[in-house]
TrEMBL record, chain A:
The keyword RNA-binding does not apply. Transmembrane segments: none annotated. It comes from the Bacteria. Belongs to the bacterial solute-binding protein 5 family. Residues 69-401 form the Solute-binding protein family domain. Residues 1-23 form the signal peptide. This is Peptide/nickel transport system substrate-binding protein. The lineage of its organism: Bacteria, Pseudomonadati, Pseudomonadota, Alphaproteobacteria, Hyphomicrobiales. InterPro entries: Peptide/Ni-bd (IPR030678), SBP_5 (IPR039424), SBP_5_dom (IPR000914). Keywords: Signal. One of its GO terms (biological process) is peptide transport. Its main location: periplasm. SUPFAM superfamilies: Periplasmic binding protein-like II (SSF53850).
UniProtKB/TrEMBL annotation, chain B:
It is a multi-pass membrane protein. It comes from Aminobacter aganoensis. Residues 95-300 form the ABC transmembrane type-1 domain. The keyword Transmembrane helix applies. The keyword Transmembrane helix applies. It is found in: Cell membrane. Keywords: Cell membrane, Membrane, Transmembrane, Transmembrane helix, Transport. This is Peptide/nickel transport system permease protein. It comes from the Bacteria.
Length: 493, 315
């Protein structure tokens, strides 16, 4: 058998060296666990859509960079009026859609009007609600007027849901996406793979890859052999779990642990007794042991959080010490709340590893102070219905993966059932502020209020685990938004 | 024979109608809203309602059932909620993977099981029988996902003879496509072969005790000829029944193997559709599978008549 293997290896080597002629590879196969339902980022919330298309096929006026910064994209530059309400964008020249048509200001107007229009089914329609009017000044200039000043407007335009599409192809993007990016769509073998190839004429820096294939591999146990056999060369979003150990020590691969925008929280129904009592929520916060939870639910890779904010954000404050792990204190608080013997409640868990495993740990931690949780596993669609829409729950565990989403606590009727006028005031003020230092200060205030109110159990920031061939360079380490930006990816020689 | 066939056809048709009602109603009571699943956690209630309207989900139950059932008759299954393409296209894309896979696996399992069954029955109680049945017992007990992963590590990771998974499509040529189906077919076939071999052996052993076998032997017919001509033919009915069940299972119940080899088959289509509450896809695929099972059973019933002339003349 050994001889067999040697012959095979020699043959493979001979084949590889004769065809590749020593040049660096220009193709890449990436494995992803979930298949996008369709390929239009402006018509669905599924992260998998952006993970294939964002920055690769579709571009927006602005874009989010690998560190979460706002960068110019199809808008070359912009000016903001003194009242903060009018944005004038100068558009990049010589940009073409993949179907050969020119990109012009009218396409921007069409895209933004479509996203905020009455019939829009954009999953982030709220991002476009502040827009009052979009006006084409000339083919290379567009003017957007807002109802009120909005500090995060340029960031919002960088979301995948705000990419620019052409009116001729908007309706067919779900099946055959046509954008302005460095890669164009080639083929989608449903259930199997999506292939992108280098676009013919691209306005920006040329990309190193000629071809990129996103292969759908739902099972982590199957993804590892696919990587080991060389079928797949990168798994940018690998599921947390035991399988990781198999490649960690292998020098052929890089294992990269990064951060995401996923604040994982013990969602709490703030209007339902006894959780409407601040003392009860504080008791829960004191009873939680984040270290044990992170070790058990994320293999020790998550970052503890004390409020609803990503630790890699410059405006982050560490509030994990607000209610430190203290069983005696927790019991004391429960007694003060009139529940010295604890109580019974339910914990509804969506079908993701961190929630199911984390849920068991949370339940055992809360049992120590007499809170007896009944664990109810639910499917994702069921979770959205029962917990998110009908708010029929006591506690749940979920990761909120939208970037910079602390404002969800100010939303009316959001499923936390939290309503604090002081917090809402901070968010209102934030929306009207564009000065960075001032915004950072307001973000800090907002984090503090949520931590003090112990709105939810703030657990940890979800890690991003990426595994790829050691020769592959330029894939994102962190995940400031859900994307697999391939524009800087190349094979080392 | 005609009456027998007609009766079978009628039973099949009635099964389909009842199944369509049951499938439709069952999925109606499953909680979860496809529109909310599509739009995620940042969309407002009004927007979800808008999408429900666009998907036609706000029409009365009976209207939706009749629309769907009418479509089924003309093979127009409607449009997928999530993919927004005709369901029939989705099914067609998947069936070109699932159907050949099921056929190859069944052929492979039969080719292994029948000779093993014959071998064991002919040596009933002796070492060969015991050994063959012990191996078969292991085959029955072995979890197929584990066996599949074992195959992947040996033939794809270590020897690199075949890909670890995936399906290049028949457009990539017959050989690459078949190559991608070899390991999954083996992983599916061996446990099935183990079951089939045991059934074959048991049926043969029973038949071998019959008087006509002794008579055949007594008139000087060689054992080999007795086995093939008399014993196997008479033992075929339970074997065919199991094969019919296995084919239906191989067509629909291969989700685990499809996941291990990330093959775009029918099992994964249904699984994905269930999690996304793409009800129309679930309903249509389930109905297709019901139809497949009914057809397979019909064929098995007919094949009884082929192997057993008495069934042809009875009634």
């Amino acid at each position: 058998m050994t001889q067999w293997k040697t012959i095979l290896a020699a043959a493979a080597l001979a084949l590889a060296s004769s065809t590749a002629a020593m040049a660096a590879r220009t193709d890449l196969v990436l494995g992803m666990p979930l298949e996008p339902p369709h390929l239009d980022p402006t018509a669905g919330a599924a992260a998998a859509i952006d993970e294939v298309l964002y920055a690769n096929v579709f571009e927006g006026l602005t874009r989010i960079g690998s560190r979460g910064e706002v960068l110019p994209d199809l808008a070359e530059s912009w000016t903001v009026s003194d009242d903060g309400k009018t944005y004038t964008f100068k558009l990049r020249a010589g940009v073409k859609f993949h179907d050969g048509s020119n990109f012009e200001a009218s396409d921007v107007k069409f895209s933004l009007d479509r996203a905020r229009g009455e019939a829009s089914v954009n999953a982030q329609k709220g991002l476009f609600a502040p827009i009052d009017n979009v006006e084409v000044v000339d083919p290379a200039t567009i003017k957007v007027t807002l109802k009120n000043p909005l500090g995060s407007f340029l960031y919002n335009l960088g979301w995948g849901d705000a990419v620019i599409v052409a009116p001729e192809t908007a309706e067919t993007n779900k099946e055959k996406p046509v954008g302005t990016g460095p890669f164009k769509f080639q083929n989608w073998a449903k259930g199997s793979a999506i292939t992108l190839v280098k676009a013919d004429a691209y306005w920006g820096d040329p990309v190193a890859l000629d071809k990129a294939e996103f292969r759908i591999i739902p099972d982590a146990a199957a993804a590892i052999p696919a990587l080991l056999s060389g079928d797949v060369q990168a798994l940018p979003n690998f599921a947390l779990g035991d399988a990781l150990a198999q490649v960690k020590a292998d020098p052929r691969f890089k294992v990269v642990i990064g951060t995401t925008e996923g604040e994982t929280v013990l969602s709490t129904n703030n209007k339902r007794p006894p959780f409407d009592n601040l003392k009860v929520r504080q008791a829960i916060a004191h009873a939680l042991d984040r270290k044990a939870l992170i070790d058990g639910a994320t293999g020790g890779l998550g970052t503890p959080i004390g409020s609803h904010f990503a630790p890699h954000n410059p405006a982050y404050v560490d509030l994990t010490g607000t209610y430190p792990h203290d069983i005696a204190k927790a019991k004391e608080l429960l007694k003060e709340a009139g529940l010295p013997d604890g109580f019974k409640a339910t914990l509804k868990l969506p079908p993701v590893g961190y929630a199911r495993q984390g849920g068991e740990i949370v339940a055992s931690q809360l049992r120590e102070i007499g809170i007896d949780l009944q664990i109810i596993p639910v499917e994702w669609a069921d979770w959205l219905k029962q917990v998110f829409t009908d708010k029929d729950y006591d506690l749940s565990i979920v990761s909120h993966t939208e970037p910079n989403d602390i404002d969800i606590y100010a939303r009316k009727d959001y499923y936390f059932n939290y309503d604090n006028p002081a917090f809402n005031k901070v968010i209102d003020e934030l929306n009207l502020t564009s000065d960075e230092a001032k915004r950072s200060e307001l973000y800090k205030q907002a984090q503090k209020i949520l931590a003090d109110d112990a709105v939810n159990g703030f657990l940890f920031e979800l890690p991003k685990v990426g595994i790829w061939d050691a020769k592959v360079e330029g894939l994102w380490e962190n995940s400031p938004i859900q994307a697999n930006d391939l524009t800087k990816v190349k094979w080392a020689d | 024979m005609t009456a027998y066939l007609l009766k079978r056809l009628l039973i099949g048709a009635a099964t389909l109608v009842v199944a369509s009602v049951v499938v439709f109603l069952m999925l109606e009571v499953v909680p979860g809203d496809p529109a909310r699943v599509m739009l995620g956690m940042n969309a407002s209630e009004a927007q979800v309602e808008l999408l429900r309207d666009q998907m036609g989900l706000n029409q009365p139950l009976i209207v939706r059932y009749l629309d769907w059932a009418r479509g089924l008759l003309s093979l127009d299954f409607g449009k997928s909620y999530t993919y927004s393409v005709p369901v029939i296209d989705l099914i067609r894309e998947r069936i070109v993977v699932s159907f050949p896979l099921a056929v190859i696996a069944l052929a492979l399992s039969t080719l292994i099981a029948i000779p093993v069954g014959l071998f064991a029955a002919a040596r009933r109680g002796r070492a060969g029988d015991t050994a063959a049945m012990a191996v078969a017992q292991i085959g029955v007990a072995m979890p197929n996902f584990w066996f599949a992963l074992l195959l992947v590590y040996v033939f794809a990771v270590w020897l690199r003879l075949v890909p670890a998974g995936g399906f290049p499509g028949w457009g990539a040529g017959a050989w690459p496509a078949l190559k991608a189906l070899i390991l999954p077919a083996v992983a599916l076939a061996l446990p099935q072969a183990a079951i089939l071999a045991r059934v074959t052996r048991a049926a043969l052993v029973e038949v071998l005790g019959e008087d006509y076998i002794r008579t055949a032997r007594a008139k000087g017919m060689p054992m080999r000829a007795v086995m093939w001509r008399h014993a196997l033919r008479n033992a075929m009915i339970p074997v065919l029944t199991i094969m019919g069940l296995q084919f239906a299972f191989l067509l629909a119940g291969t989700i685990i193997i499809e996941n291990v080899f990330y093959l775009p088959g029918l099992g994964r289509l249904v699984f994905q559709a269930i999690t996304q509450r793409d009800l129309i896809v679930v309903e249509s695929v389930v109905m297709l599978l019901v139809a497949a099972v009914v057809t397979v059973n019909l064929l098995v019933d007919l094949s009884y008549a082929l192997v057993d002339p008495r069934l042809r003349t009875r009634q």
